[in-house]
Amino acid sequence: MTYQEIYTKLEKSPSWQHSYREIMLLGKQLPALPEPLKTEQARVKGCESTVWLHIDLDEQQQHLLLVGDSDTRIVKGLLSIVLALYNGKTPMQALEINAYKEFEKLGLIKHLSPSRGNGIKAIVDTIQQQVSQWA
Amino acid sequence: MSDITQLRKDFPTLKQTIEGHPLVYLDSGATSQKPQAVIDAVNLFYTKNNANVHRGLHTLSEVATTQYEKVREKLARFLDVNAMECVWTSGATHSINLVAAGLTSQLSTGDVILITALEHHANIVPWQQLAARTGAKLEIISVDEHGVINSDLALAEIQKSKPKVFACSHASNTLGNIQDVQAFVAKAKELGAITLVDGAQAFLHLRPNLRQLDCDFYVLSAHKALGPTGLGVLYGKYELLNALPVYQTGGEMIDTVSFTKTTFRQAPAKFEPGTPNISAVLGFGAALDYLNAINFDALHQYEQGLYQYLIQRLQSIDGIKVYGDLKNNIGTASFTYKNEHHYDLAMLLNSYGVAVRSGHHCTQPLMQTLNLNGTIRVSLAFYNNRCDVDAFISALTNSIELIEG
What we know:
The complex is a heterodimer of chains A (135) and B (405).
Chain A: H1 3-11, H2 16-29, E1 51-58, E2 63-70, H3 73-86, H4 91-95, H5 99-105, H6 120-132
Antiparallel strand pairs in A: 1-2
Helix pairs in contact in A: 2-3
Chain B: H1 4-8, E1 17-18, E2 21-22, E3 24-25, H2 36-49, H3 59-79, E4 86-89, H4 92-102, E5 112-116, H5 125-134, E6 137-141, H6 151-161, E7 165-169, H7 181-190, E8 194-198, H8 202-206, H9 210-213, E9 217-221, E10 232-236, H10 238-243, E11 254-257, E12 262-264, H11 278-292, H12 296-315, E13 320-323, E14 332-337, H13 342-351, E15 354-355, E16 357-359, H14 364-370, E17 375-379, H15 386-404
Helix pairs in contact in B: 2-11, 3-11, 4-5, 6-7, 12-15, 13-15
């Protein structure tokens, strides 16, 4: 699912229960990471739940390739939104993304603020840090 | 207990909404809420009586010192021990570290430090470090598949290992189990052990009589018993306590100082360097007054009744598994739902205004024993009522529906 499709879905969510349901559905649709890729090195530090993230650059196309997984439904759903935001972007484009603002527009910040330890901030920071080396 | 409705009104934090729902506070194991009297006592100190203690001849300092020392006496009466046996610390963790550091010279290679498998990290790591410093062995009394210590097996384990140090929680922070500490302490002392009981969780719910319990050391945190944060207690039998070397040094705890030699005061002063947490001590004094004014037996009965109601309602949900000793319990329920991650359920519960704790609860070894990555923990206090339990159960079933829908 593209970020635009996700945006359209969540934008008109009538209640937080509905948002959560959509987020968990997004998580379900995100393919599970193969076990050998769930390495210690791929773990994002600073998340209460376990999150694995791989970031790569298609050097020919200059496109970002991100895959990830989490052991919780909600974080996996949120992760899939983050992946949709960044996948296929060039490093320069990626640096301009303000993920926090996007989450705010989706109405998720109120329920899913980074201070609750859902680790979205840690995930986004990890991506930005990696991408800045390519930009 | 009909007075509960009245008592509940004393807790201003409970009168708020979270995410549009009335707050259902079920995380008293992490910290208890504070009655208005405690807040007022802290407030009064800073608005009227603020002065340092044990210094200065001026009126405010005298008043502060008198009030501060009165709370130590009040606490001593509450615990049925002597005031000079009670040291103010920053919390139960500090208290355990003080004892563990102080016992360094008393242990040597091959000595046994015995603890249990359900201890909080704060009652594991200081002993592990003590073992590493001295060459002593850290041995563990195991729990069964529910997380319960079998008392007979524990006594046999104490007999077998002949520990030099025995440390055990009065009640488990993760599961709420009440340990048979009286029997364990008696057995360990009979074999010559120094004994420490971690009362961080139990103190509020059980109001232990330490003269009867007869342990050498008992530790607690004020904030888990209606008091302010940043204050703890180390009780120690005077000779053993005073025999411990100083832990931190500085002002207040000295007798004489020159550049070549310093002599220290006797316990408890020798363990209280620097300016103490005066406002927290005064707040804790108000907490003790508050507790003293409520009939303990009636309160205990009420708490136990509410806990049984909680367990019964939890167990009526298909797929819920509750861990721990459901008979001897301070009112804490730790549970899982099928293979669902505790994180998802706790997040959803919060959206219904329900505050619970989720995770390993600072007991990773216990979680490993139970083969879990975490649980959801509901911890009750006397200011909770059946409405709280009902609201929690309804939020839980809605959350489960949302997850499985």
